[in-house]
Design goal:
about 160 residues; mainly alpha; 6 helices
């Protein structure tokens, strides 16, 4: 079947879709957006607090404080995932917990915890790579494309 054609529904299927649509609970869109904004903002504020801490007490500058800040946020996300707390935060805050560093750490830690009974290599490592692999692949490819464009512009005398 081609992408442009829609499958014709039988009367029973149309009746069922109408029945399901009537009983589908309404989602509180505004509340969900506010919760996501609040949780994402709190996560980012905590990260900003770590950056301030590293610049103030360890004499990092704003750029070099990024690495220990990210590492601290990753450690906290993994610990909260292991303790089962991050899932509760994600249930309440929804998309706000997908802030890149903590969300990715939660995803990898969840995969590791879920498949630990299958062994370290095939269970933990294999399932973590199923998730991390595409992210790493597309990240490396994007860096290659952007680097190539930057070299071409610089070579052409644009910079």
């Amino acid at each position: 079947m081609s992408k442009g054609k829609k499958k014709k529904l039988t009367p029973v299927q149309r009746e069922y879709q109408a029945f399901a649509a009537q009983r589908e609970p309404r989602r509180p869109l505004l509340t969900n957006c506010l919760r996501a904004f609040l949780v994402g903002g709190i996560i980012c504020t905590i990260g900003q607090g770590f950056q301030w801490f590293y610049t103030t007490y360890f004499n990092f500058d704003r750029v070099t404080a990024g690495s220990p800040t990210a590492a601290s946020m990753i450690i906290i996300a993994v610990l909260l995932t292991g303790l089962g707390v991050y899932d509760h935060i994600a249930q309440w805050g929804g998309g706000g917990t997908i802030v890149p560093v903590t969300g990715f750490a939660n995803t990898l830690a969840s995969a590791a915890i879920e498949h630990r009974s299958e062994g370290f290599v095939l269970g933990v490592g294999g399932n973590m790579f199923k998730i991390a692999g595409p992210v790493i692949t597309y990240g490396v490819f994007a860096a290659f494309v952007i680097g190539t464009i930057a070299v071409l512009i610089k070579t052409a005398g644009g910079m």
